[in-house]
Amino acid sequence: MHKVDIEQWLGQHNDYLVDAGHGHFLHPEVLTDFTAMQNAALHDGIDLQLVSSYRDFSRQMAIFNRKWRGDATLLNAEGQVLNFSALTQEEKLHAILTWSALPGGSRHHWGTDIDVYDKQAVAQSQQPFNLICAEYEKNGPCYSLACWLESNMATFGFYRPFDEYKGGVAREPWHLSHKSTATYFEKARNLDDLAHAISQSDIDGKAYILSQLPLLYTRYVLNNGRD
Ligand SMILES: [Zn+2]
After folding, report:
1. Cα(76) to centroid(ligand 1), Å
2. Residues with CB under 5 A from ligand 1 (ion)
3. In-domain check, residue 227
């Protein structure tokens, strides 16, 4: 399937998804390559497993609203905890979008993008797992996985869309995208449909978000950062 309609890129109706096990759903073409990559990693002693996969619009909105209301911790791009009550509306919005996408604007809506970790190595570390950069760097439980991905993910069609921080989305070494499949969703993506979906939703801070949406779309959805 290569024809992507509005509801599919917005994560509102994705009936092509297939069961990837353990509650995860993926685009069928992505599951095939993911399974092959997982087997190759296992052969090299790495237990590559999914943390997140497909997530729909409502789920993304629930995450966003929790953060907007102060029911979940907000971090800056360096991963430091922010004092919620001291933030302006603008600061709050940017802090949320550094780590969580707008509903309708997440690559996780497509079934093409995944967050991965080394499950066995994390269990052996006996430390709480927080999905932070340090866990994927030297001395972190997912360092071997990160190095393995660097050398091997392209063979299976994956790349890291959030490889560097440009002033938009934070660096996410765990987030992989299936390039050839995701390209179709990227082409379908547009500001007008996103604005319509958000205006029809129950998102908190709606009026403010809509007033800022052209900027937010470029900076975070397209992840062009501050350029
Ligand atoms: Zn992700």
Report:
1. 17
2. 115, 175
3. no
